[in-house]
Amino acid sequence: MANKKKTVYVCSECGAETANWAGKCPSCGMWNTLKELDLGEKPARRGAPILKKEPQKLSALGTEAETRFLTGIPEFDRVLGGGAVLGSLNLVGGAPGIGKSTLLLQMCATVEPDRVLLYVTAEESECQLKLRAQRLGVESEQLYVLAETELESILAAAESLAPDILILDSIQTVASSLVDSAPGSVTQVRECTLQLMRWAKEKGLTIFVVGHITKEGSIAGPKVLEHMVDCVLYFEGERSTSFRILRAAKNRFGSTNEIGVFEMNEEGLRCVANPSELLLSGRPANSPGTCVACVVEGTRPLLAEVQALVTPSAYNAARRSNGIDYNRAAMLLAVLEKRGGLPVGSCDAYINVVGGLSLDEPAADLATVLAVASSYLDRPLGADLAAIGEVGLAGEIRSVSNLNQRLSEIARLGFARCVIPAHVRHELRKPKGLQLISVKNVAEAIGAVLGRK
After folding, report:
1. How far is CA 197 from CA 159, 192, 212, 280, in A?
2. DSSP conformation class of 50
3. Which residues of 142-171 are buried (b: 16+ CB within 10 A; e: fewer)?
4. Residue 449 near residue 379 (C-beta atoms within 8 A)
5. What dihedral do alpha carbons 365, 355, 93, 253 form, nearest 10°?
6. SS3 219
7. In 162-270, where does DSSP find H-type helix?
8. How far is CA 217 from CA 8, 395, 436, in A?
9. Maximum CA pair distance of the chain?
10. Do residues 416 and 434 make contact, with C-beta atoms less than 8 angstroms apart?
11. Phi-psi region of 307 (alpha: psi -120 to 50; beta: other; left: phi over 0)
12. Alpha-carbon 161 to chain mean position
């Protein structure tokens, strides 16, 4: 009996597989995202399965395969969980021109000097990469460059050179000769990533792969690409600002809550050791509509300035937010009107987080509410005030995690007052020189700092 050729259709957005083509993905609901994927001839089953490897006890396994090495970039090592892991496949994604190639090229100059590196540029020529390296001041005798787009030739060069680190820029421009489809297609990206993953595990080679993102902000190509790799890093930031944030969306060897903060200048990317101080620089003094919030990213507390502008609206109420979830901002405005007694529903409310940060932690709720109230009443909160707390639908102020760590960071940066929830879940340690203002609800918080009952 002849073997049957198996074909499935894969969604390029969510990675779901289906046996039949459809205009709309049955999993994520996106249109025209199902692409045909040829799985080849279905092998005939002959006899009993062959045991290739004996199972081992967990207690008898070693951890030599998870040995780390430092990249020489402290913020990069922080996000990776303490350094890169030998034999890991890491995906670095971001918008064009955000600094992905710059970060990896700078790593070539700062990594341990005995590490051999192979930088495969599939989008630029060797001369273009050389010019960029000169501009960044990258000089290393252990760095080799290869301009190639065929995966088999890249792996052959890696077999000959035997590097410790392989950088592939980018996965969407590399194609395998074993697959008959265009580079960047679902089939090519999946097959190339699968071969790179096997190569990394078998050879103990650390591979960094650059990936482009779509308009929605996700890695271009099938979603299965993110499932196959060990670590997914997103490089974020506004093109109009110099700050860049490296965030881990997936990390099999570390936390996904850590972030790395960089500043882009003429000489490349510079690590920001104290991002709170940098994000608060240039803050206007005694200006209404601004309040400082403290959020925790991984193990690092960050202070961010939340700004609000409330103006009377001549049309239907329009609420705009940048850096805070729109639905969250609308909820806080409704709570402020219902529980705080401020009629902001008939006004245009614009909320912004300075520095391009995205605050998705509820601990920034109280600072957002106070910034909106300050703008509406046209009364400044004071440059020495910060606020920490989650706001509920009843207008109550709830406690947040890591409160002592947040207060220490606020006191370290010279703030004199901080609004906190009246009920805290853990033992409170008051930092020296910091006045704590305990409040139970939104109305009490506005009255305590803005003098309105």
Report:
1. 15, 9, 19, 42
2. P
3. bbbbbeeeebeebbebbeeeebbbbbbbbb
4. no
5. -60
6. strand
7. 186-203, 224-228
8. 26, 34, 40
9. 86
10. yes
11. beta
12. 33
Task: Give the pLDDT confidence of 191-241 residue by residue, as tens digits.
Answer: 899 999 999 999 989 999 998 776 555 555 556 678 889 999 998 877 667
| Tokens linked to 159 | 């077999």
Evaluate if residue 15 carries a pLDDT over 70: no
**Dist CA 233 CA 253 (whole Å):** 13
Q: Which of 128, 159, 131, 163 is nearest to 144 (CA)?
A: 163
Locate 393 and state its tokens: 């639908």
- Determine contact, residues 221/214, Cβ cutoff 8 Å: no
Do residues 385 and 294 make contact, with C-beta atoms less than 8 angstroms apart?
A: no
Instruction: Return d(Cα 403, Cα 194) in angstroms, integer.
Output: 44
| 3-class DSSP assignment, residue 196 | helix
Q: Closest Cα partner for 437 from 342, 366, 362, 335?
A: 366
With contact defined as beta carbons under 8 Å apart, do 90 and 84 qualify? yes
**C-alpha distances in Å from residue 297, one per residue of 8, 31, 121, 259, 294:** 40, 35, 33, 6, 10
Q: What is the C-alpha to C-alpha distance for residues 449 and 443, in angstroms, rounded to an integer?
A: 10
Is-contact 178 155, C-beta < 8 A?
Answer: no
Name the 3-class secondary structure at 38.
strand
Q: Give the whole-angstrom CA distance, residue 268 versus residue 263.
A: 8
Report the alpha-carbon distance of residue 232 to residue 373 in Å, rounded. Answer: 39
Cβ-Cβ contacts under 8 Å for 384 (sequence gap 6 or more): 414, 415, 416, 417
Q: pTM for this one?
A: 0.74
Mean pLDDT of 409-415: 92
Tokens standing for 231?
A: 């670590």
For residues 213 and 221, what is the distance between their CA atoms, to the nearest angstrom? Answer: 9
Q: Residue 441 and residue 72: Cα distance in Å, rounded?
A: 47
- Please name the residues in contact with 316: beta carbons below 8 A apart, sequence gap of 6 or more: none
Mean pLDDT of 107-115: 93
Residue whose C-alpha is closest to residue 354's, from 344, 340, 342, 364: 364
Alpha-carbon gap, residue 400 to 346, rounded angstroms: 31
**Per-residue pLDDT at 278:** 79
Closest CA relative to residue 111, chosen from 99, 100, 103? 103
Q: Give me the DSSP letters along 276-338.
A: HHHHTTTPPTT-TTEEEEEEEETTEEEEEEEEEEEEE-SSS--EEEESB-HHHHHHHHHHHHH
